[in-house]
Amino acid sequence: MRGKTRLAPMVMVLLAALMIAGCSKPTVVPDVTGQDVGYATGMLKGSGYEVGTVEEEMADVPAGQVLTQDPIGGTKLAEGETVMLNVAVSPMYSITGTFTLDGFDNIRGSASDCYGTGGYDDITEPVNLFETGG
Fold first, then answer.
1. Alpha carbons 85 and 37: distance in angstroms, whole number
2. Burial of residue 30, with CB atoms counted within 10 A of its CB: 0-12 exposed, 13-18 middle, 19 or more buried
3. How many CB atoms lie within 10 A of CB 35?
4. Cα dihedral sign for 73, 74, 79, 82?
């Protein structure tokens, strides 16, 4: 009888430790599609997930916008698991056309196919290449 009373508390402590260590309750993954990657990463990490990113060239959306996520928002996933984000980056195009030096302040393209990066953040204002710090 004496051996059984010592064993019971040890078994209870062992069972409790196993339940706490292995108990990562799944939670609902937030939907971060359409958000900025920095904001989306913060939301997911704050929810207990790891975050991975894959970049995709996309000319029609802002650079850094989350295009898709895996698993999708609303899915239950254990904390510590990884959510992959597919993130837009602007494609790089070479600039073609004739350029005109307009004084020392600005360079302007004189052809209609002069587009900066070619993505959402195209150059729409003259670029000052000779700006000096002050």
1. 8
2. middle
3. 18
4. negative
Give the other-Cβ count within 10 Å of 101's Cβ: 10
Q: Classify residue 82 by its DSSP letter.
A: E
Residue 105 is classified by DSSP as: T
pLDDT in tens, 98-128: 666 555 565 555 445 444 544 444 445 555 5
- 13-67 pLDDT, tens digit per residue, is 666 655 555 556 899 999 999 999 999 999 999 999 999 999 999 888 899 999 9
Helix (H, G, I), strand (E, B) or coil at 114: coil
Distance between CA 12 and CA 30 in Å, rounded?
37
Residue 132 φ/ψ, nearest 5 degrees:
-110, 145
- Secondary structure (DSSP) of 11-65: HHHHHHHHHHHT----EEPP--TTSBHHHHHHHHHHTT-EEEEEEEE-SSS-TTB
Spatial separation of the C-alpha atoms in residues 3 and 16, rounded to whole Å = 21
Q: How far apart are CA 114 and CA 125, in angstroms?
A: 12
Q: Are β-strands 106-109 and 99-102 bridged in parallel, bridged antiparallel, or unpaired? A: antiparallel
